[in-house]
Amino acid sequence: MGQHNLRTVIGFEVGRTLGKKKFWVITLLVPIAIGIVVGLVTLGNTSSMSNIDAQSDAKLTFTYSDASGYVDPAVAAALGGTPVTDDASAIADVKAGEEDAHFVYPADPATTPTQVYGIDKGLFGNGEYEGVATQVLITSAQDQIGDPALTTMAQGDVSVTSTTYTDGEEAAGFMGVIPPLIFLAMFFLTFTLLSNQMLTSTLEEKENRVTEMILTTLNPTALISGKIISVFIVGFVQVLVFLVPVAVGYLFFRTSLNLPEVDLASFTFDPGQMIVGALLALGGFALFTGTAVAIGAVMPNAKDAGGWFTALIILMIVPLYSVSLVLSDPHSAVVQVFTYFPYSAPITAMLRNAFGSLAGWEAAIVITELFLLSAVVLQLAVRLFRYGSIEYTNRVSFKTVFAGRTARSLARG
């Protein structure tokens, strides 16, 4: 009978939520917004490419004076340059629109800036002048050096490949950090999107004065458990809805959006880290969902519950404000407090797990703590809901709840 009631609650809550137009409007706002942004960016990039092609067809012409002797006339001529000796006259030609630009190369370009004068092409178009002026010097220097390898090294354009080791094994590096961080992103995104659903899951029945009727046919434990499980299911649906446009955008519009190609083979998926990350996310979500339901059971309305729920969110995101400390000194006293304090533990532990500073025994303690506390909070939420169901206008008193329990225990004894 209890299992039947649980299935009934889950089916009702999920069906009621997914059947609301408001839910789908809010849920689809993000994918629609992503689609609009993708369309606008694609259009913008297409227009930009057309402008770039048009600009490349229209070759820039310029005059220049060279006090350094470093500029190769052949290089400058190939880029559209003509040497002059009268800077004032050349600048006057630019002002009159008779010449695109004029460059004044100083005696020591390494310490004195090159002066560029040009016809205004807009904030971004004006950068072309600086690029051409610099390219003239670079190409001229390369020709004087004569050795392409020396030229590359002189510019600092050299690549370095690093290999590090942990306990004799090659470390995964950054590519091993990203996969475990997926669980942190999912936890944070899901909690943010479903925060209102968590808070109002128990308040609606109280405000509508139907809880007494519900409790005559349903066990409070089945009711609260069903509500929490339904939030999990609804969250999973929302995550899928958000991921679909992201996947479509990457697969079909990656070039238009200038997105980098991601090689999944380059990522390192450590089974231990992935399992720990999944358990931390699941335990953290269960704890925060149960706590939100308990807040809803205590408070008479959403307005009164809002302040407590805001405090809950602050406790959750506090580690993000000290993320540099979490990464640089994971064994400091502050980080240890964040790691083991239940409401800051999920994000702190997931960060440390992704960056490899969370030991196995630490992960076991935090995961156990989260799931055990989730079970305790669930029982507390059930008891608070049982008392709060008849407190329509007043906040439930913890003293009354536990005093009633003690009195019943003594009566049975």
TrEMBL record:
This is Sodium transporter. One of its GO terms (molecular function) is ABC-type transporter activity. GO terms for cellular component: membrane. Pfam families: ABC2_membrane_3. It is a multi-pass membrane protein. The keyword Manganese does not apply. The chain crosses the membrane at residues 23-43, 171-194, 228-253, 274-299, 305-326, 363-385. It is found in: Membrane. Keywords: Membrane, Transmembrane, Transmembrane helix. PANTHER family: ABC TRANSPORTER PERMEASE, ABC TRANSPORTER PERMEASE PROTEIN NATB. Residues 21-382 form the ABC-2 type transporter transmembrane domain. Its main location: membrane.
